[in-house]
Design brief:
With 121 residues, the protein is mostly helical. The protein has six helices and three strands, in the order ααβαβααβα. The protein has helices at residues 11-15, 19-22, 51-62, 67-74, 78-90, 108-120; strands at residues 38-41, 65-66, 94-97. A three-stranded antiparallel sheet has the order 2-1-3.
Length: 121
Amino acid sequence: MAASSAPAWTVEDTEAPSLYVLTGGQTRPTHTLQVQTLLWAERELPAGQPPEAEQAVALCREKPLGVAEIGARIGLPFQITRILMSRLIDLGALSATTPAGLTDLPNTDLLKAVRDGLLKL
C-alpha cells in the first residue's frame, strides 16, 4: 500500500471542540427545555466556561431568546444547546420560562376519551 502525502489530520480538525467535550459527556439536559422555552441572563457567567456558553449568556442579556434561536445563533445542534443551557441555568447565569399555554396542554388520555365519545354520537 502506498503512503499518502496528505496528513492523517489537519489543524482544522483540532480547532473546534467536539460536542462531547462541550457537554462534558452529559447526554441529557437537567431541565425540561423546549424549542420555545425563553431564556434570559440573570448574572455573570462563572470563569472557565466554554466560548459557546459566553455567547449564549451575551445573547440573552440583550433580550429573552428561545432555546432553538440560541442554538441557531451559536451554531449548535438543538440537543447540545439544551444541555448547555441547562448547565447555565444550574450555574445561575440564565433563567427560563415556557410561554403560557404551552405547558398546560391537555392529557392525551382525556383527548382520546373525548374523541371516543364524539365517535359514539
